[in-house]
Amino acid sequence: MFRIVSKSRSFSDSRKGRFVLAANNLAGMTLAPALYRRSGIHGTIVHAIGTEIVTGVLHEGERLPGDQELMARFQASRTALREALKVLSSKGLIESRQRAGTRVRSRGDWDLLDVDVLSWHTPESITESFTADLVELRELIEPAAARLAADRATSDDLTRIEAAYLRMEMAVDDYEAFYVADVDFHLAVLNASHNQLVQRLAGIIGTVVGLSFGLQKQARIPLRESLESHYDVFDGIRQRNRRAAERAMRITIRRGRNTLSQRRTIMRGQTA
Hints:
Blueprint: E1 22-24, E2 29-32, H1 40-54, H2 67-74, H3 78-90, E3 94-97, E4 101-104, H4 115-119, H5 128-152, H6 155-170, H7 175-192, H8 196-200, H9 202-219, H10 227-238, H11 242-271
Antiparallel strand pairs: 1-2, 3-4
Helix pairs in contact: 1-3, 5-7, 5-10, 5-11, 6-7, 6-10, 7-9, 9-11, 10-11
């Protein structure tokens, strides 16, 4: 049995779901899962250099320091360093050539669908065009997932979606807690689609939601504004109304896009 969720009612829910997130040092908030953050010394190297490349500390064509310097910086063995550089190369971030050293590749070569590469972005490093790309990606995937979920969601799926919504409602004054619940909500909807390929996109979408939320946090947009459309997504899925669920998810993403536009306007005003 499911509780009837009212938009105007306050809820108390002691459960605090956990979505494993990596702290983004430059943005000052948790954004997305970073696979190499906890993978030993070579993971530390991957995360550090990857972040420096993606955020523009290291520029396209710039040569990385030599092995000895990097080994000293990270207190790492040559083997660990080389393994880390292989990972960064596989993500399209660097290339190594004999007698030319290791250099940063152009952004067009990066694997932008790699969860780590996405998570290494910060609000400050995301361009307007890339922000638009992120929103368009969500618009292509999430409304369709909500439509499928309205047909296929199990009772367990509905419980997870509802629980995430209730936690969002409780956390309207806490950006960090609201973000965790918001990501859980969107991942629960994706999972409820019961489409294996859509479910495999959960890491990417979770990361994209995190990046969008980092931008919203900078603009200090009131969190309560997004509750209604999230409720409507849940209600559409619960009522098995495919069109309503799909429409509500489109509205949710559109509101997020408008919020990002507000953020850019605010940031321009601060730098003027």
